[in-house]
């Protein structure tokens, strides 16, 4: 297991760049655990990620694991917008409960992909880009319950 620390500075000139660096890292590593703390004196979030590198070997390539569903710039139907709004509300509440930034729970693109793909089982969540074992263990049941209720 490896550890990486990110500094998410809140002033507007840094925020987008810092968040993009974190998002890029999250999309290319298997996150095992996260810890966050707000550093009030300097006005930034400290993000500690415990992770494993995706292992690639020269002898074996698993195409099916690489290609995952992602709603890039898809237009959502009215029903999908309702699902997305419910997922965003759930994410905000979950982030507040856990004292985490909302993008730690799930990014907007991940929630949009869930709204478009509409998985019915935890295994189907694995087919959506951004959803790994850790995220599904922590939030999968709740996401599926939201999908069932709408």
Automatic annotation (TrEMBL):
It comes from the Bacteria. Pfam families: HRDC. Residues 77-150 form the HRDC domain. GO terms for molecular function: nucleic acid binding; nucleotide binding. This is Aldolase. It comes from Chryseobacterium piperi.
């Amino acid at each position: 297991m490896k550890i990486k620390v990110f500094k998410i500075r809140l002033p507007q000139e840094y925020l987008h760049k810092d968040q993009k660096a974190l998002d890029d890292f999250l999309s290319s590593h298997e996150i095992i655990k996260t810890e966050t703390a707000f550093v009030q004196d300097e006005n930034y979030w400290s993000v500690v990620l415990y992770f494993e590198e995706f292992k690639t070997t020269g002898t074996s390539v698993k195409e099916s694991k690489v290609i995952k569903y992602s709603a890039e710039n898809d237009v959502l139907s009215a029903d999908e917008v309702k699902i997305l709004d419910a997922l965003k509300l759930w994410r905000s509440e979950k982030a507040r409960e856990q004292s985490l930034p909302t993008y730690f729970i799930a990014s907007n693109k991940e929630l949009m992909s869930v709204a478009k793909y509409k998985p019915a089982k935890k295994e189907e969540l694995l087919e959506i880009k951004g959803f790994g074992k850790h995220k599904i263990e922590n939030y999968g049941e709740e996401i599926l319950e939201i999908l069932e209720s709408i």
